[in-house]
Amino acid sequence: MEEKKKRKQSTGRKPVVDPANRKITIRMNEQEFVRFERLMNIAEIKDKTHYIKSCIFDKKISIIKINKADMDYVKKTDRVLCSI
């Protein structure tokens, strides 16, 4: 009985050291999806997951913060300058 417990079964898939167990869902409309597929074909990447990961982690992303007070000031000065 003890001999049977000591033997491990070698069938099945080997466990992964760092499993990817987080999932993110992206919803696109038809136009966005067509554009996404076109860009993916240009990049010649067949797997959508690899393409999205490369776009997120390998490319530089710029973040622009817009201050509403500054935008209101620009709009008001633009109106004044246009009326002159």
Please count the helical segments: 4
The fraction of residues in strands falls at: under 5%
Percent of residues in helices comes to 40-55%
Residue windows where pLDDT falls under 50 for at least 5 positions: none
> How many angstroms separate the termini?
98 Å
Morphology: elongated
Record field, number of beta strands: 0
Radius of gyration: 27 Å
Can you offer a commentary on this structure?
With 84 residues, the protein is mainly α. 52% of the residues lie in helices and 0% in strands. It has four helices and no strands.
Quick description:
This protein has 84 residues and is mostly helical. The protein has helices at residues 2-6, 30-42, 48-57, 68-83.
Task: Please describe the structure with a list of short key phrases separated by commas or semicolons.
4 helices, mainly alpha, about 80 residues
